[in-house]
Amino acid sequence: MPQLQYYPVRETLFSAEAGTRYVSFGLRCCAPEQGVPQLAFIPDVSCDEIFVRGLADRFTRHQLSPCHFLDAVLDSLC
């Protein structure tokens, strides 16, 4: 099985409600050993960079399957 890597991705987004831009962090799942730059991406997970970095580290360490990626992110937000 290829080594999976999860990375936080900084995004500058626009909130129509607030009428302003804001910085948020998404998560990217990659398989760099196979030359796959992106298997999955979840945008706008949180504005808390430390929280998203922690998720990326945990998902990489435990080799979270991409099929569980969205559920794991949603569960972590509860």
Strand content: 35-45%
Major sheet strand order: 1-2-3
**Class by helix and strand content?**
alpha+beta
What's the domain count? 1
CA distance, first residue to last residue: 30 Å
Helical segment count: 2
- Outline: globular
* Helix coverage percent: 25-40%
Number of E strands: 3
**Averaged pLDDT, please?**
94
Write the layout of secondary structure elements.
Elements: E1 5-15, E2 20-31, E3 36-46, H1 49-61, H2 69-77
Antiparallel strand pairs: 1-2, 2-3
Structure description:
Pfam families: DUF6514 (PF20124). InterPro entries: UCP033595 (IPR017016). The chain contains two helices and three strands; from the N terminus they run βββαα. With 78 residues, the chain is of the alpha+beta class. The protein has one domain. Strands 1-2-3 form a three-stranded antiparallel β-sheet. Strand 2 and strand 3 (36-46) form a beta hairpin. The chain is globular, with a radius of gyration of 13 Å.
List the main descriptive attributes of the protein structure presented here:
78 residues, alpha+beta, three-stranded antiparallel beta sheet, 2 helices, 3 strands, 44% strand, globular
